[in-house]
Amino acid sequence: MLVNMNDVLRPAKRNRYAVGLFNAVNLELARGIIAAAESTRSPVIMGTAEVLLPYGPLEEVSYYLIPMAKKASVPVVVHLDHGLSYDLCIKALDLGFTSIMYDCSTDSYEENVRKVKEMAAIAHSRGATIEGELGHVGDNEGSAEGSSHLADPSAYFTDPAMAKDFVDKTGVDALAIAVGNAHGAYKLPPKLDFARIRTIAETVDVPLVLHGGSGLTDSDFKQAIKEGISKVNIFTDINVAAVEAEFQKFQSMDKGLIDLIPAAVEAVKQESMKKMKLFGSDGRADTASVSDADLETLARMVMAELAKYLK
């Protein structure tokens, strides 16, 4: 079923697990991700990012992501990750994406607030959700996002007090934070600032997002989720798993593309399942689809019925 980010992240925040965002730039990736979610009964966020559009144009990606999400037996959010421009975010909403990230983290704080607040109002008017970023998540060499090495990464970490001000002013539904994480494959073991995650989670009332999830250890993930992370972004791990499976399958030139596709889908499925179980989202599909708004509506209906009998 096609849902927005609040439907899956609010329950995750309440119950201390995380939901994975897995980018799907082609049909094989999407098939593997959906298969993993349905096998584990996990809610899932599936989408693409602006930097990945050369490999899968937004319109073409929407042609399969949205119908697959609607047909899925588990809650599926279709999300634009790291939308860097106003026009692209609007285009994603026009195409039917139920969630967007408007990444203005490299702008001044005032511009970040102004631009994201404006986009949040538009997204909410369409029933979609929005993620913002405060601080700046760096890029490892070879990452899809590029390579913006920071001499002192901690100088770009998210400030807890500023995070609260940002959330209050913009109305974002989720906040991506910088706590020692980076996009792409890590050359050296990352050192996440878990205390900072905990402080931010206690300061703001929206789910927190960890970008640059591929390459972190299982213990890193578990601790980050324990401290307050509700959404984890994954791409490198499933991207590499797919190509490794295809290499293993392609042993001679008598193979065709159709010989490789099943191997890629299965590899993505298995890698995604590992992450879903690690994040604790497995078995949460049935509860994740019940949003806070749904619960409030249900409560009003129950109270109305009770009132009839109390008269």
Q: Percent of residues in beta strands?
A: 15-25%
Number of domains: 1
Figure out the total of helices.
12
For the largest beta-sheet, the strand count, sense and barrel status come to:
8 strands, parallel, barrel
What share of residues is helical? 40-55%
The CATH topology name reads TIM Barrel
Radius of gyration over all CA atoms, rounded: 19 Å
Tell me the name of the CATH class.
Answer: Alpha Beta
Structural class: alpha/beta
- Going by CATH, the architecture would be Alpha-Beta Barrel
Report the mean per-residue pLDDT as an integer.
87
User: From N to C, what is the helix and strand string?
Assistant: EHEHEHEHEHEEHEEHEHEHHHH
CATH superfamily: Aldolase class I
User: Which segments are poorly predicted (pLDDT under 50) over 5 or more consecutive residues?
Assistant: 139-151, 183-188
Principal-axis shape:
globular
How far apart lie the N and C ends?
39 Å
Number of E-type strands: 11
How do the strands line up in the largest sheet? 2-3-4-5-6-8-10-11
